[in-house]
Write a structure and sequence with these properties.
The protein is built from five helices and eleven strands; from the N terminus they run βαβαβββββαβαββαβ. By secondary structure, it is α+β, with helices and mostly antiparallel strands. The strands form two sheets. The chain has a six-stranded mixed beta sheet with strand order 3-4-2-1-11-10, covered by helices on one side. It has a five-stranded mixed beta sheet with strand order 5-6-7-8-9, with helices on one face. The longest helix has 15 residues.
């Protein structure tokens, strides 16, 4: 009787890769999907997101639908295949507009935090818990106001609302802070520790680091970079900011 065991293929059990690290996150103010050439082109934004290939994306200035507004988030969700959640700052029957998050991983819970200040333009923060193969992350996507007192109030409220020791917290978005040593930035640095801040605005020739990514604990942040491809320089007036997060 022949011994077939020597020539028979060895069966192995495939073990799925459940380690999400390093994780790539991105924040991107898409300027309503209107590029530097003043052309409304959500497909260009979608192509920039394909270039980046991030796992979690925070978006600002996103048209979210309404009677007189397109739903750009729906188009970006279809283009990426990601889970999409919205955090409108403006929410009327005619126009819904604000923050959004696209995630490769399941979103467990969502909170939309009103950061409006007086009679100024409505602002908000989208606060989401995301399950990355069993590793929980709290992601806060925001777009702060244009005036100094407004930003100070919004940062103070943010730090009170979302801080937690239960899971790592990532804060990212357009902070609209033009001053390197502005009070709101000093509060964030004190809370999260200093992080790299490459220039992202205006996209064609960046002069200001308006877009930021922080994570607590700080040692999880490995690298921060600007995505400055030719397409990104025209698709919006901001460049995307990317960070790599380790476990």
């Amino acid at each position: 009787m022949n011994d077939m065991s020597a020539s028979a293929p060895r069966l192995t059990t495939a073990v799925p890769d459940t380690d999400p690290w390093p994780l790539t996150v991105c924040t991107y103010n898409i300027h309503g999907a209107v590029g530097c050439d003043r052309r409304f082109a959500p497909d260009r934004v979608a192509n920039v997101l394909r270039e980046i290939n991030a796992d979690i994306i925070a978006l600002q200035e996103v048209p979210l639908g309404g009677g007189k507004s397109p739903n750009v988030l729906k188009e970006l969700q279809q283009a990426t295949g990601f889970t999409a959640i919205e955090g409108p700052a403006c929410d009327t029957p005619q126009r819904r507009f604000g923050n959004a998050v696209l995630s490769r991983y399941p979103v467990v819970s969502v909170r939309n935090v009103d950061l409006s200040f007086g009679s100024h333009e409505p602002r908000a923060a989208l606060d989401a818990d995301i399950n990355c193969h069993g590793h929980m992350l709290r992601v806060v996507a925001t777009h702060l106001g244009l005036r100094i007192p407004e930003r100070r109030d919004q940062v103070r409220r943010l730090l009170q609302v979302f801080d937690t020791e239960e899971m790592p917290v990532i804060l990212m978005g357009d902070l609209n802070e033009w001053f390197v040593w502005g009070q709101s930035l000093r509060w964030l640095v004190s809370h999260f520790e200093a992080v790299p801040a490459p220039r992202t605005f205006p996209s064609r020739r960046p002069l200001f680091a308006l877009d930021r990514i922080w994570i607590r604990p700080r040692h999880r942040l490995v690298h921060v970079e600007v995505h400055a491809t030719p397409l990104a320089r025209i698709a919006s007036d901001h460049l995307p900011l990317i960070a790599h997060i380790d476990g």
